[in-house]
Amino acid sequence: MYLIYENDDLATELLIDKYKPLILSSISKLNLTKEEKEEFYAEGLIYLVKAIHSYNERFFMSFNSYFTLILKRRFIDLLRKKSHKTKIVYLDNIEEFIVDNSNKLENQILREDKILLSAFERRIYELKFINNETPRKIAKELNCEVKKIYDAIDRIRKKLRKNNLNG
Predict the structure, then answer these.
(1) Phi, psi torsion values for 95, nearest 5 degrees
(2) For residues 108 and 1, what is the distance between their CA atoms, to the nearest angstrom?
(3) Residues 107 and 89 sit within 8 Å (Cβ to Cβ)
(4) Please, are residues 116 and 145 in contact by the beta-carbon 8 Å criterion?
(5) Engineered SS bond to 8: which of 3, 128, 149, 152, CB 3.0-4.6 Å?
(6) 87-166: CATH topology
(7) Residue-wise pLDDT tens digits, 56-110
(8) Cβ–Cβ contacts within 10 Å for residue 128, how many?
(9) Taking the complete model, does pTM exceed 0.70, yes or no?
């Protein structure tokens, strides 16, 4: 590392070559398409160079641990961004695609056998999270108070969270 601090390009190249297999190994553990693997590899190399320049021995960790941590965090961030683009919802054994970047928890995978929703909650789920209707419009359509709709949405979210935590 001291050679890198002295701006030795050969030392930097050697370190980059040394950590390329770590990047590739981390990518191989992920379920990605060929294009996504190339994107993740490029990001890995960019963050390797950033890690080389930002590493400080006073971090009380080896460079290997430091870079592994940075790489893991970056890949998690990329996966989060990727996962918020398209979600599949299983409802009454019908697969429907939802494209919505704003709803995170609402677009979780819903399986009828794992999440027990009442008929009322299923109807609200369909209207709110699939058809993107507002709670006021749902209340008007179902002829009930808006508060009742908000309460049902809250119950649905809690059930989705609970299911997500239990796997």
Answers:
(1) -85, 125
(2) 44
(3) yes
(4) no
(5) 3
(6) Arc Repressor Mutant, subunit A (1.10.10)
(7) 777 677 888 888 888 888 888 888 887 765 444 444 433 344 344 344 444 443 4
(8) 20
(9) no
Q: What top-level class would CATH report for the domain 2-83? A: mainly alpha
Task: Tell me the H-state helices in 6-55.
Answer: 9-28, 34-54
Give the pairing type, strands 94-98 and 87-91: antiparallel
User: In this structure, are residues 114 and 139 in contact, taking their beta carbons and an 8 Å threshold?
Assistant: no
35-46 b/e (C-beta count within 10 Å ≥ 16 → b): eeeeebbebbee
Contacts 24+ apart (CB under 8 A), 64-73: 64/22, 67/19, 67/22, 68/22, 71/22, 71/23, 71/26, 71/44, 71/47, 72/26
**What are the domain boundaries of the chain?**
2-83, 87-166
Task: Count how many residues are written for the chain.
Answer: 167
Return the residue matching tokens 């981390």: 26
CA–CA gap between residue 164 and residue 158 (Å, rounded): 10
pLDDT at residue 91, as a whole number: 44
